[in-house]
Design a protein that fits this description.
The protein is an alpha/beta fold. The chain has two domains: 166 residues, VC0802-like (2-Layer Sandwich), CATH 3.30.2130.30; 211 residues, 3-Layer(aba) Sandwich (Rossmann fold), CATH 3.40.50. It contains 14 helices and 15 strands. Strands 1, 2, 3, 4, 5, 6, 7, 8 and 9 form a nine-stranded mixed beta sheet that branches. It has a six-stranded mixed beta sheet with strand order 14-13-10-11-12-15. Helix 8 crosses helix 9. It is elongated, with a radius of gyration of 27 Å. The mean pLDDT is 94. It binds adenosine-5'-triphosphate (ATP) and magnesium ion. The site of magnesium ion has 4 residues, from loops. Adenosine-5'-triphosphate binds next to helix 5, strand 11 and helix 12.
């Protein structure tokens, strides 16, 4: 019965030019999301409203599902759009609508009319009262509840008349493309896909870097990261995933440096390489899934040591989250099932029995000197052999 959706969006206190940027980005993200859905969709903007109008047959559930992945949308309202053919006609249409939309009539309701067009012959309060009356006449089982109705019958009088009673929640946030781009350090774990999701939710486009260490990490581990990138891309849009062969760097650090410092030194080189690709791709920051105290490499001292090598801002949206809170978001965005598949990533292979939890920068600097002979060439080799995979959901 629905041939259109009315899209509600927020954060729109944003004024002037920024508002257009926001709406432009929102429309283009909606087009991207709907591009994969069966049907023909047209997006129309009108007076601070965005409508999705359909032509012919389309898959309702798929369309809703696609729109639920578009940041910036706070509500998706399946809407019946009517021509204004007089108030009597409107009363009949509302009765027809309730008849079709609610097979069971034992609910409470409220009519919420709004006139965006002030020359309409009736005022909102009058419309509410008369539509309510007519509905009670047509369906005597209905009850009015003005405080917490089961069904809110919304009637918006514009050049056209919008009739809707369902608001399907959207993901909120800001449309991707309104806030530049950042480079996500994406591993096969639970945290980093969630971190990418959270920054993308603020309107930031995402590229990603994954460090793999064949043969210590398998093709399956890499495939898992590709799958996770696909899940993030459902929300964030296309992602260029940089797969960096990290094996030789890791082995070299393993040979030259004390094993308890391995993870920290390794992480410093990961950040340096990620920053290289970030700059190359016009990213304005790095993103990691780190959270204070989660593991030895995420104590305040370890984070300081990792952070020291970066010149770009490093965004750590999970920094104050407990694991359980991260798991909940992971489940909500549909990444959890993939994240817990048991393929080793390169960090879990070379872990020391007793990694330092309070690395001293002086000690780390000294030990890194032991890498002087070959590390630049190995870094260059890693850069030269990067594989870039274009990921679309
Ligand atoms: P995750 O669940 O995201 O793997 P984690 O709790 O296992 O995180 P670490 O392994 O210490 O934590 O990694 C911290 C962060 O460093 C990750 O969230 C991710 O951003 C980045 N990272 C770790 N390993 C890799 C990797 N192999 N490739 C790319 N980034 C990585
Ligand atoms: Mg990890």
């Amino acid at each position: 019965m629905y041939k259109a959706f009315l899209i509600k969006y927020a954060e729109i206190a944003i004024k002037g030019k920024n508002r257009y940027l926001f709406e432009d980005a929102l429309v283009s993200q909606m087009k991207r999301a709907l591009g994969k859905v069966d049907g023909t969709f047209k997006i129309r903007r009108e007076q601070g409203r965005i409508y999705v109008e359909t032509e012919g047959e389309y898959d309702f559930d798929e369309a809703v599902e696609a729109l639920r992945h578009v940041f910036g949308i706070v509500g998706i309202c399946p809407v019946v759009i009517l021509k204004d053919e007089g108030f009597e006609q409107l009363l009949d249409e509302v009765v027809r609508y309730v008849e079709a939309a609610y097979p069971e009539k034992n609910f409470t309701f409220k009519v919420n009319a709004r006139r965006a067009r002030k020359n309409y012959p009736l005022e909102s309060m009058e419309i509410n009262a008369r539509v309510g009356e007519r509905l009670l006449e047509a369906f005597p089982e209905l009850r009015v509840d003005v405080h917490s109705p089961d069904v809110m019958v919304n009637i918006e009088i514009r050049n056209q008349i919008n009739l809707y009673s369902t608001v399907i929640p959207g993901p909120g946030g800001m449309p991707v493309g309104t806030n530049g781009k950042a480079m996500l350090l994406l591993s096969g774990g639970i945290d980093s896909p969630v971190a990418g999701y959270m920054i993308a939710k603020r309107g930031v486009a995402i590229d990603a870097t994954y460090f793999h260490a064949p043969p210590y990490t398998s093709e399956r581990a890499k495939q898992k990261v590709v799958d996770l990138a696909k899940i993030v891309a459902k929300y964030a849009g296309p992602i260029n995933l940089h797969v960096v062969n990290f094996t030789d760097i890791q082995l070299y650090i393993y040979e030259q440096c004390p094993h308890e410092e391995l993870t920290i030194i390794m992480r410093r080189y990961m950040m340096k390489l990620a920053e290289h690709f970030a700059k190359e791709n016009k990213c304005l920051g790095l993103i990691t899934g780190e959270s204070i105290g989660q593991v030895a490499s995420q104590t305040m001292q370890s984070l300081a040591a990792t952070n020291e090598v970066c010149t770009m801002p490093v965004y750590r949206p999970l920094i104050g989250f407990d694991k359980q809170e991260i798991v909940e978001i992971s489940e909500k965005i549909g990444a959890y099932e993939t994240s817990i598949l048991p393929y080793e990533d390169c960090c879990t292979i070379f872990v020391a029995k007793h990694p330092v939890t309070k690395p001293s920068l002086n000690v780390i600097h000294n030990d890194e000197k032991k890498l002087a002979e070959k590390i630049d060439a190995l870094m260059q080799e890693a850069i030269d052999t990067v594989e870039v995979i274009h990921i679309e959901a």
